[in-house]
Design brief:
15 helices, single chain, alpha/beta
């Protein structure tokens, strides 16, 4: 019997290559598990072949398979071509298990903004799995997929991985193609892997990363190295005071992160304090001008004419208004309104223009820190997974879940979440951030800490 809760993608690949199990048996093992977490919005039939199965977030286009972005306005939409990342997965023989749940248009921190209902946390189904990629994170931890693809704009890979207790990478902006991915904020969106281990995460990143002629923002990337070292000798780790002592960080989260930092030092890392004052103070405010402004532009294409929902009305103008009224949920409407206001005549320079200047300050502040350190560390999320419904009526409280993930996203930097312990019986995430194109350093440090921590990623209720 295949234990999908503990089997890593690397182990699965070895079993299939060694013909100890077939690809069909492996696919059936994952597909046969009941999705009581509502991790998937659509599950696929076995496409055949001998590759490893994969789950893909429902903002990533997949030919012939529904892609809704968690929104009623795209309900029933089936792309006629694959996104670049989906195509690269197919080329390596990966078999699509299904499309995972997401906050609508990736706008949220809990998956509760999905038009099709929230996903649930595998550690405690009364709690959220994080967002916006809560479906992918829940699927991996819940044994419904060996690994998955997510997307990250302000923390939508790292934060769900933290709350569900697995490994998630937001890559350097431009290392992974966005072609065929439903756009939220184009200068921030990035696709990345979610997995049980750092080595699995690195392997999946190696499959999807690299230059794509269909996305002019992409670049060639350094050769991905699967990590093997179990020490941190020579690695300089900075601990930003503002990101480790921020208001709202739960005591149990702080304690688990401190233990991980002490462990890093015992593994040979050079640990020192650093500072990112403006990044933390202004990061969330800056993000909630830049991201909604870009969203208001990107979501203008949903007009009821070419694809997706079309509401009945007497004329075009009424049809357009009614379609958007019926199709968009509260959070996309909220961000469209904020973004349109920030871009409007007379306000552009005061809001969007100023936010872009602050973004440059955030980028420079990180660059200054990386002159002295190879990586910086902090909690990924200020809290462990919260109850479903606890913050849904308080948008500001929901936005602050991404307080610690947003600054590095604004700077276009890579970040890796690894689980570093439990607080109140729920996973705590450790965030490792590096300079641009430092994924291999993140993988090395993450792997060494992962091995030393010995975190059991299987939820206690499922053991």
């Amino acid at each position: 019997m295949i234990d999908t809760l503990r089997l890593t993608a690397e182990e699965a690949w070895r079993l299939v290559d060694g013909r100890e199990i077939s690809g069909a048996e492996l696919f059936a093992a994952y597909a046969g598990r009941e999705d009581d977490l509502h991790a998937y919005l659509h599950r696929c039939d076995d496409p055949g072949g001998d590759g490893i199965p994969i789950a893909i977030k429902d903002v990533i286009g997949t030919k012939g398979v529904p892609t809704t972005a968690g929104s009623k306005i795209l309900e029933g939409y089936v792309p006629v071509f694959d996104s670049t990342v989906a195509s690269r997965c197919k080329q390596r023989g990966l078999r699509l298990l299904g499309k995972t749940n997401t906050d609508e248009f990736a706008m949220g921190s809990s998956t509760e903004n999905s038009a099709f209902g929230p996903s649930r946390n595998p550690w405690d189904p009364t709690r959220v799995p994080g967002g916006s990629g809560g479906g992918s994170a829940a699927a991996v931890t819940g044994g419904l997929a060996p690994w998955a693809l997510g997307s990250d704009t302000g923390g939508s890979i790292k934060q769900p991985s933290a709350l569900c207790g697995n490994v998630g990478l937001r890559p350097t902006y431009g290392t992974v193609s966005r072609y065929g991915v439903v756009a939220f904020a184009s200068s921030l969106d990035q696709v990345g892997p979610v997995a049980k281990t750092v080595r699995d995460c690195a392997f999946l990143y190696s499959i999807i990363a690299g230059r794509d002629e269909n996305d002019s923002t992409t670049v060639e990337v350094p050769t991905v190295e699967l990590p093997g070292a179990e020490d941190l000798t020579g690695v300089r780790i900075g601990v930003p005071k503002e990101m480790n002592e921020a208001e709202g960080i739960e005591p149990g989260v702080s304690a688990a992160v401190r233990r991980a930092i002490e462990l890093a030092e015992s593994l040979g890392a050079e640990v020192g304090e650093c500072s990112l004052p403006r990044s933390v103070e202004y990061g969330v405010a800056c993000y909630y001008l830049v991201a909604p402004a870009e969203a208001s532009s990107n979501l203008g294409r949903y007009d009821g004419v070419r694809y997706g929902l079309r509401s009945d009305a007497a004329d075009f103008r009424e049809m357009l208004m009614q379609t958007r009224h019926d199709g968009f949920g509260d959070e996309p409407k909220r961000r469209i309104m904020i973004g349109t206001y920030a871009l409007s005549s007379g306000y552009y320079d005061a809001y969007y223009g100023t936010a872009q200047k602050v973004r440059t300050v955030i980028r420079r502040e990180h660059a200054d820190v990386f002159e002295s350190f190879d990586l910086i560390v902090s909690p990924t999320s200020p809290t462990v997974a919260f109850k479903i419904g606890e913050k849904v009526d308080n948008p500001l409280a929901m936005y602050l879940n991404d307080l610690l993930t947003i600054p590095s996203c604004m700077a276009g930097l890579p970040g890796l979440n690894i689980p570093c312990g439990l607080s109140e019986g729920l996973p705590v995430g450790l965030q490792l951030i590096g300079p641009q194109f430092s994924e291999n350093t993140l993988f090395r440090a993450g792997h060494a800490l992962e091995r030393a921590l010995g975190f059991d990623s299987v939820p206690e209720r499922l053991r």
